[in-house]
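G., the chain you wanted modeled:
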Amino acid sequence: MGMTGHRVVDLRNRAYAAAVVAHIDADPAREGLTQARETCARWLLREGAEPDLHEWQRILLEPWERIRALLLAEGERATRLRQSSPFVGIITDEERSAILREYPVHAKA
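Predicted structure as tokens:
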């Protein structure tokens, strides 16, 4: 029996987060962090914005090291927050495709 869909999504979200962390770690200007703050602010303007986005807005004011630790953390809070991560458009299409191939949600049994 394979992994459940939820488990695969969690693993895929963690892989995305690790790739995002690698990009931001490699950029002294931390442009990915600025981008995530802007994305979060834009998403909060939409009607019916997810409650987690308000939490992300607060988190994104913290130092990178704390944000980084949360992105990579295990546990319910980190897993929940990764599901609405504002860190979009930071990794390359190639990286995203590789992660999708590694963690297919609709894997054949």
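The chain has one domain: 5-101.

Shout if anything looks off.
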